[in-house]
Amino acid sequence: MGFSVNRTLQELKNSSYLYGSNAPLIEAWYEAWLEDPASVPQQWAAEFARIHSTGENFKPERGRLQVQEKFRSLGRFASTPGADYHESDHKQAAVLKLIHAYRIRGHETARLDPLGQPHRDPVADLGLEFNDLGPADLDSFFDTGTLVA
After folding, report:
1. What is the separation of C-alpha 94 from the centre of its chain, rounded to a whole number of angstroms?
2. Which of 19, 47, 113, 134 lies 20 to 30 Å from 127, alpha-carbon distance?
3. Higher pLDDT, 4 or 41
């Protein structure tokens, strides 16, 4: 049970092009290859075909991006039956704009005066109406991402 460090390092070196900054490109080519094998460089089409031919019980797979889009579209309509993509996308963008506005200018609505007097004029872009949202949208669910700035 000898472990060869040189052999392991050589194996890593031989496969290093598959990782790091190259990985997203290779993944995108793989996704494209699943849709149309002729759409990727011939060398990569052969490599993807070789990988798929190794299993006897191989079932054709669907691209990850296609599956993600399906779930994304299900999420759009789960809270608003009968809504269309355009309206849903518009509302989603409006929510993200409102979140961004609060991150940048939210401090301007802080009530700092102990007597309750406003210290500034109201900030328009922190309102629902300014962002094409309304009270009915407060009961809807939107994808806010991780909310990490």
Report:
1. 17
2. 113
3. 41
